[in-house]
Amino acid sequence: MVRSSRGEVSPGLWRREAGTVVRRAGALPERATDSGAVVAEFRIVPAPTEWAQHAHRLHELVWVRGGTLTSRVGDRVFTVFEGHGLWMPAGVVHAGRATEGARFHSAFFAPDRTPFAFGEPKAIAMTPLLVSLLTHLSRTDLAEAARLRAEAVVFDVIEPSEHELALRLPGDPRIDAIAEALLDDPADGRSLEEWARLLGTSDRTITRAFRQSTGLSFAQWRQMLRVHRALMLLSDGFDVMSVSERLGYAQPSSFIAAFRRVMGTTPGAFSGAVTASGDVRNPVSGGENAGLSA
User: Fold this and answer.
1) What whole-number percentage of the chain has pLDDT above 90?
2) Which residue in 42, 119, 181, 218 has the most C-beta neighbors within 10 A?
3) Helix axis angle, 192-199 relative to 203-214, nearest 10°?
4) What's the number of CA atoms in the CB half-sphere (13 Å) around residue 15?
């Protein structure tokens, strides 16, 4: 859990915003006990919504349109955005948060009738074919033969995504104060040297701790965290200038460059690529996690 400076505990990354709906757990659909291997459904999230830590007896695949979903699994935080989904194995404890207005989709897979298994959370490529099949399976009037045919194709086409936007939280007492401060306020611009003086340590120690616990440098980790936050803000309808200011960038060009390094596209293109879809309140695109520069 992340405890903000306001004292509120949030299962996601960020300080809990006003109007957030907090739910104890994501309930399984009523049809999850039927004979089919896959049960799909969708719903609109009318307000920012958090789900407390929970686990399912079924595998779960979630994806969103017109918003983002942030899922916390142990020391990792995944951000799910347009074009990508997240596979959550049965029994894995997780928590989550969806942005207001997101069209939230989920599909549940019976472990004993699913001919494959991902042993850990995994980003999934939500191809048009896979989305169409799962949308088809969300119908309640399918004959058993039709359902079985569709499920068989789902099993054939579901594939991990080549791009996964995940942030590992340090969990290291030497730098936990830095991580907590940045999670609470991603715009915190204190330098490595300033943090070293504040914590009574050396910048070399901080650098080594970030590398050992997250695989990233301090600057890379902060950049990745800001991109996670940027996705949520862009999905909520904030423009590039406003997001840049909220994340502490001196110039919008610096934010655009940092976003492009991680996502492989600009924030403007990301937030505007699917405006023609009509039913999406906060349009987002299927950007890619292109990795971080050294």
Assistant:
1) 58
2) 218
3) 100
4) 14
- 119 CB-near residues (< 8 Å, 6+ apart): 89
- DSSP state string for 240-258: HHHHHHHTT-SSHHHHHHH
* Pair of tokens at residue 35: 């004979």
Choose among 234, 232, 218: nearest CA to 273. Answer: 234
Query: Residue with structure tokens 């086409």?
Result: 157
Instruction: Name the H helices within the chain.
Output: 128-137, 144-157, 176-184, 192-199, 203-214, 218-235, 240-246, 252-263, 267-272
Instruction: Tell me: pLDDT of 158 over 80.
Output: yes
Token pair, residue 118, equals 């991902």
* pTM for the predicted model, two decimal places: 0.82
Note every long-range contact of 218-226, with CB atoms under 8 Å and residues 24 or more positions apart, other chains counting: 218/178, 218/192, 219/192, 220/292, 220/293, 221/167, 221/170, 222/182, 222/186, 223/258, 223/261, 223/262, 223/292, 224/167, 224/262, 224/292, 225/13, 225/167, 225/182, 225/183, 225/186, 226/186, 226/255, 226/258
Phi and psi at residue 262, to the nearest 5°: -85, -45
Q: How far apart are CA 18 and CA 8, in angstroms?
A: 11
Averaged pLDDT, 252-260: 95
Higher pLDDT, 271 or 84: 84
